[in-house]
Amino acid sequence: MDVSDQAAHQGAQMDFRERMSYSNYLQLEKILAAQGPLSNAHDELLFIIQHQTSELWMHLALHEMRAACLAIRADDLQPAFKMLMRVARIFEQLNSAWDVLRTMTPSEYTMFRDSLGQSSGFQSWQYRAIEFLAGNRNLSMLKPHEHDPHITRELNKILAEPSIYQEAIYLLARNGLDVGDERPGSEIAGTRASSDKLLAAWGEVYRNPKRYWPLYELAEKLVDFEDYFRRWRFNHVTTVERIIGMKRGTGGTGGASYLRRMLEVELFPELWRVRTEL
Can you tell me the mean pLDDT for 76-92? Predict the structure, then answer.
């Protein structure tokens, strides 16, 4: 009995002329037709798939982060913990993807780099949305997306709502902790400054974990996420340096030098500073 006969014998469906198949459900025909290399270089397919799969993972991260914001707002913290853990694992997955791209040498990338034109990962609107949702809201980063009204609307919609970190701060306030001026109704769209009041509030949580266990666990879930996010940024820099050295990026940035500056950006600054204060 061959494999197909064995599968049929065990009850597996074998005729999909009138049933939904695996390929139908996942729309694989569309996905596998979405790679369109612009050169004859062997490694361009790797480059495209690396970035397309990264965008798919980021799509899922955004789905989880939006839901986590709503859950925190509703004081429904257990589901929020699960969602934030999943986001951290998504970035762990994204980190592993750099290992595949680093198999491409500088010579191999040079064979198709000109085909990219001015396109660059710097222009990923989903990456920008993740930063905005997390709380890093540099409004000048809207500019690369002004050519697309739909994307601009999506990013502005995110900016009109509190970030995950702002929702966590409001949660601290609802639990009687002094967060200073960072309350509902305060500025939510732009870059926020690090706050000594908020640092003291997180300090209270970390000094009394049993009393504030849900807040303590939320803080650690946020730190987990940023930990993996930082590793992803670092691996990005390392991969760029390995492949193009210190050349400028295709999108006009300084390439590795620009990415190194981004390593200094903190999403949840008080959650890192509180460790020094304890």
Answer: 97
